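In the design runs reported in the main text, the only information available to the sequence generator was the tokenized backbone. The following block is the verbatim input for one such run; it is reproduced so that readers can re-run the procedure and compare outputs position by position.
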């Protein structure tokens, strides 16, 4: 995992330091905010294509970072909070990729996940063709997946780096880990590494059925403890409507806000990535 590099606090025009990220990461966020301010001055936000978007865990983080977000999923997503297109992700990317400034992709992870044996239907591996199509697009991209997925030189993010915690229904503090891997064609900095402690770990799964404090406190239980829906949403940092399946799929928006700030600064630092006429005229 990459270590967090010290980020100097830079002057920020247009946006405050993120209220959603821990202070040290929120300061880092201001690097991206400078670029955001340039777009803001030109009346245009950079556009991010959110492939395999589900109900928008990743999308909301990129929006908080300063992107205008557009989602694509093969099934309807009535809880997705931005403009949504129902389509096959790879077909949409090939047809419309050139309309965007950056791309995030979360291809289905069931084929690699620890619970793969619990899924009845065979899941196609979309990761490899997704990467090929993203490279073909020539745009800066981030691919997200679970531990065990064959990503190139991935960076891991953990809920403990972002202080993702919530009280359980009986008040006991819970912590979310939800390790996720991120591959990119820009250089990504990490958030400092896991800061696991003794706090009871909870997750957001549909396969497990460990849903009461009695399950949580049972030393013989197997698998992760899955608290009530509202507690899961709070742990993930999700403050818009999501059902159980969507919560199980979502990455915490704090992760993609952190990555989105880096994507923004990368677009800024690499003039060829954004045609200058776009900055001036749209
Ligand atoms: C792991 S979820 C994405 C989670 C999302 N990034 C988030 O943070 O909330 C994967 C999604 O891929 C969608 N999907 C599966 N095959 C697809 C395809 N060929 N094209 C578009 N979406 C697809 C599924 O419907 C599912 O919503």
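Verbatim output:
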């Amino acid at each position: 995992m990459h270590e967090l590099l010290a980020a100097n606090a830079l002057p920020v025009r247009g946006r405050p330091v993120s209220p959603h990220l821990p202070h040290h990461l929120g300061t880092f966020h201001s690097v991206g905010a400078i670029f955001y301010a340039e777009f803001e001055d030109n009346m245009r936000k950079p556009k991010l294509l959110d492939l395999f978007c589900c109900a928008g865990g990743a999308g909301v983080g990129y929006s908080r970072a300063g992107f205008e977000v557009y989602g694509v999923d093969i099934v309807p997503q009535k809880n997705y909070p931005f403009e949504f297109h129902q389509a096959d992700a790879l077909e949409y990317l090939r047809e419309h990729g050139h309309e965007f400034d950056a791309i995030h992709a979360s291809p289905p992870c069931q084929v690699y996940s620890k619970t793969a044996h619990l899924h009845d239907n065979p899941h196609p591996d979309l990761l490899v063709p997704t990467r090929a199509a993203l490279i073909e697009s020539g745009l800066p991209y981030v691919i997200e997946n679970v531990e065990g997925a064959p990503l190139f030189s991935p960076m891991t993010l953990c809920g403990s780096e972002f202080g993702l915690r919530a009280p359980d229904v009986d008040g006991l503090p819970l912590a979310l880990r939800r390790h996720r891997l991120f591959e990119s064609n820009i250089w990504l900095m990490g958030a400092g590494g896991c800061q696991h402690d003794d706090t009871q770990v909870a997750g957001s799964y549909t396969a497990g059925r460990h849903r009461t404090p009695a399950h949580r406190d049972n030393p013989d239980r197997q698998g992760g403890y899955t608290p009530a829906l509202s507690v899961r949403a709070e742990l993930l940092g999700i403050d818009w409507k999501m059902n159980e399946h969507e919560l199980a799929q979502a990455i915490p928006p704090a992760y993609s806000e952190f990555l989105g700030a880096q994507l923004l600064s990368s677009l800024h630092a690499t003039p060829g990535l954004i045609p200058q006429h776009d900055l001036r005229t749209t």
